[in-house]
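Sharing a chain and its predicted structure for anyone who wants a worked example. Both blocks are below, sequence first, tokens second.
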Amino acid sequence: MSYRVLWLQSGGCGGCSLSLLNAESPDLLTTLAINDIELLWHPSLSEAGTAEFLQLIEDIEQGRQKLDALCLEGSVMMGPNGSGRFHRLAGTRRPMFDVIRSLAGQARHCLAIGQCAAFGGITLAGSNPGEATGLGYHIAEPGGLLGVDWRSRSGLPVINIAGCPTHPGWVLDVLCQLAAGDFHESHIDELNRPRAVTDHLVHHGCPRNEFYEYKASAEKPSDLGCMMEHMGCLGTQARADCNIRPWNGGGSCLRGGYACINCTAPGFEEPGHPFTETPKIAGIPVGLPTDMPKAWFVALASLSKAATPQRLKLNATADHIRIPPGRQKEEES
């Protein structure tokens, strides 16, 4: 029997769906077909109208339709004052959070797709007038819509496929593992994120790693150097494999010239400072690489800067390679 998936959108931008549609090698529909995954409904892919969709929801709730995985994209909107009136299910007066809670109780597995569904994300930022929350977490605290001790029919908690947006491979890998019966609690980390993703750092595979090694730092957005020291990059702390398996064959934030903002971590949306600035105390970045003591970092950074080749010093603060490897003098162009 096929593995049946229902995908709902709540308080979000739809960016995770857009990313999913760009899956490749193989593409989304091929991946679903070869793994015998049936998409019961998806807002961007399904042709069913309102009446058919509402009948599907009723059939699942009444046990007439099997549901293996509920995928929620976007945060759960609880406002105003816990009433859910800010977001009602289309064609009904029913609060969407009530529908989500009911369907989660019927599903064998429950997946929070993206940062908003996992931890509240962008929708929760600021004063949070919509009373947004995650499916199983509110920022970094367990709870959210379903509560601290909630478990699906399989015994697993909500699987938080965090990211803003998620990589299509992160989503499809988990769905394929679930469909094959090969995803267990040992496969999630302390925030219930897939360890296949979060056992890595964004720093792994970063195209600017040579600049990082010598602390040859970028000073403005167009520079080629490491963005950790001045430009707000959190790639040495962020847990994801973005530079190991890039988007669309070759893309990632850092490959596109943007600092990593650690979008798989709860609370990333409000760092307390501009995303493109690195906060410092006495000239030392506040956010140091994962597991590195401050004294070691200061000592290594001083030695690295002293040993920086002229090629890297010049290239780090340029918008193109001025000295290629093996050359000792600056190119004319």
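Comments welcome. The chain has a mean pLDDT of 93.
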